[in-house]
Amino acid sequence: MATIPTSKGAAAGRGQFSTLAGLSALYIGFGMTMGVIQGGFPTVMRAQGMSIGSAGWLYALYLPFGVAFLWSPLIDRWRPPAFTPRIGWIVPMQILAALTVCGVAFMEGAPIALLFVLGFLVACAMATMDIALDGLAVDLVVPAWRPNAAAAKLAALSAGAMIGTGAFVALFQSLGWQLIFVGFSAFLLLLTLPVLSLVPNERTLARRGDRDAFSPKASLTKVLADPLQRKRLILLTFACCVIFPLSGLNRLMLVDLGLPVETIGWVVGTLGPVAMLVTALVSMPLMQRAGLGGSVFVFTALGLLALAAMAMGFQFALPVAAITGAILAGAAVSGIYVALTARILGWAAGEQPATDYAVFYGVGRLASTIVIIAAAQFIAHLGWLLFYATGAIGLIAVFGLVHGPVSEKT
C-alpha cells in the first residue's frame, strides 16, 4: 500500500480539524437549545411549584427533534438557491431560530399557548438545521476521523448544554426574561459564522464527485427497506429509550430532594457538561484501544454506579451522593452514545446521508422523548427508587445487545 507523504497527511489532518471546528460551533448552539428545552424550563417551572407530571409535558417541545426525520428527504432532494446544498439549509434555519428567540424576548407575559407555538417553531428550525448539519458531517468527515467527529460532537453539545441547562437556570431570575433571551438569540447568530468557512469544502467535494450534492430520489423507505439497517435502527432506538431518561430527569429528582434551583443550575448544570467534555476526550482513545464493546462496558459500569448513587442519595437525603450520581449518569449516557454515534456516521454514508442519519438519530430521539414523558408520570406514582432500579436493568440489557449489529463495521 502506498503511503501518504507526511506533508499531505498533515494538510489533510488540518483540513479535518477545521471541518470539525466549523461543525462544532453549530453543535454548541444546538446543544444549548436542547438544554433549555430539556433541562432549563422544566427545572425552573418545577421549582415554581408545577407538578412533576405537568413538568414532564414540557418535554413535548423536544418532539420536533424526534420527528424531523419525516421531512429529512427534503434536505437531500432540494438544493436551496443560496450557498451550498447543506449550508444553504443550515444558515437560514439558524437565523430563523435566532430571530424567533429574539421575538420571545419581548413577549414576557404573553399567553402560554403563543409562547409554546414560538418555542415549537424554534425547535423545528433547529431540528431542520441539525439534519443538514449531520449530512454535512457525513459528507466532509473521512472514515478515519469518525470517532474524533463523534467525540467532538459530544464535546460541543456538552458545552451548549452547560449554557442551556446550567447558566440559563442559574441566571434566569437575576438577568430576567428579556436579557436572557436576547443573549440566547445573539449567541445563536454568532455561532453561525464558522460554518461559512466550510462553503469551499462542500463545493470542492461536489466538484470532485465524491458524493452527490443532493439526491432527488431520497426517501425514508430506502433506509427502512434494508434489513440490516432496520435491525440497527431497532437496537439504537431501544438504547436511546433506556439511556436518555436516565440522564434527562435527574434535575427533577434533585428538586424533589429539596435542593435550591440555583444550586442545581450552577452545580449540576456546570459540572454535568464538564463531565461530558471529559467523557468526549476519554472516549476517543478508549474506543481505539478497547473497541466498541470495551467502551460500552466501561460506561455501562459507570452508569450503574451513578444509578446506585442517585437512589441512595434520594432515599437517605444525601445531596452530595445524589448530585454526584446525576453528574456521572450524564457522563455514562454520553459515553455510550458517542460510541453509537461513531457508527451512525458510517451507516449513513450512502446516497442520502442527511436522510439516513436523520432516521437513525431522529427515531431514537422521538421514542426516548415519549419515554421521558411517560417516565415522569411513572415516577409521580411509583417513585424514584423503582425508576432507577428499572433503569439499571435496561442499561444491562443495552450492554448485552450492542455487541450484535451495532458492532458491525461499515
What brief labels describe this structure?
disordered N terminus; 0% strand; 410 residues; mainly alpha
Percentage of residues in helical conformation? over 70%
Task: Please mark out the parts with pLDDT under 50 across 5 or more consecutive residues, or reply none.
Answer: 1-6, 208-213
Helix segment tally: 16
- Class by alpha and beta content: mainly alpha
- Order of helices and strands, N to C? HHHHHHHHHHHHHHHH
Largest sheet: none
Strand proportion: under 5%
Supply Rg: 21 Å
Shape: globular
Query: Termini separation (Å)?
Result: 21 Å
Number of strands: 0
Explain what this protein looks like in three dimensions:
The chain is mainly α and 410 residues long. 80% of the residues lie in helices and 0% in strands. The protein has 16 helices and no strands. The longest helix has 55 residues, at 261-315. The chain is globular and about 60 Å long. It starts with 5 loop residues before the first helix and ends in a 9-residue tail after the last helix. Mean pLDDT is 82; it is low at 1-6 and 208-213.
Strand and helix map with partners:
Layout: H1 6-47, H2 52-57, H3 63-67, H4 72-77, H5 87-105, H6 112-140, H7 146-175, H8 177-190, H9 199-208, H10 220-225, H11 227-248, H12 250-257, H13 261-315, H14 319-347, H15 353-382, H16 384-401
Helix pairs in contact: 1-6, 1-7, 5-6, 5-8, 6-15, 7-8, 7-13, 7-14, 11-14, 11-15, 11-16, 12-13, 12-14, 13-14, 13-16, 14-15, 15-16
